[in-house]
Amino acid sequence: MRSVRHALAILGDREVRRWIRLVATLVAGQNKPTDLVLTALTRARFCELITAKVGQDSADLFLVGLLSLIDAILELPMGLVLDGISLAPDVRAVPLGERCRLSPIYDLMLTHEAGQWEEAANLSAQLHLPDGFAADIQWNAMQWASQMTSEV
């Protein structure tokens, strides 16, 4: 497979949903809070949806959001988890807390998640996003993640 986008295209929506269900089921079976899975999916979708305005690769950003809580889900240090996965340098950098070209988008997602509206507005302005765009993306991402996890 050439990329996550390529893998998703091959698998299709139905298979991706199946894998998400499988992961959610495994996490729930290990007595992990399903909120972790819901939050990771929301983050992934937020990062993916924002690509329309910021000109980055949606597959990379989706993966950044999805991986953002993998350490908490697996109860392993992030570095150890990521060492076992082949990732683009920027995708690896963000969950490790290293600055890269994807960091401002990730930071915007985190500020919206935390309700830090002033900082979110500043980051939106830096990314040249229209007023309210990131809030709309956050709402859409939450709805999508909720739908995905409710089908488990």
- Shape, please? globular
Q: Count of DSSP helices?
A: 10
How many strands, which pairing sense, and closed or not: the largest β-sheet? none
In what range is the share of β-strand residues?
under 5%
Structural class: mainly alpha
Radius of gyration: 15 Å
Helix content: over 70%
* Chain-averaged pLDDT: 80
Q: Termini distance?
A: 27 Å
Q: Could you state the order of secondary-structure elements as H and E? A: HHHHHHHHHH
The total tally of domains equals: 1
Description:
This protein is mainly alpha-helical and 152 residues long. Helix content is 74%, strand content 0%. It has ten helices and no strands. The protein is globular.
Give a brief rundown of this model.
It is built from 10 helices and no strands.
List the helices and strands and how they pair.
Layout: H1 4-29, H2 34-49, H3 51-54, H4 58-67, H5 70-74, H6 78-83, H7 89-93, H8 103-114, H9 117-126, H10 133-150
Helix pairs in contact: 2-4, 2-10, 8-9
Attribute tags:
globular, mainly alpha
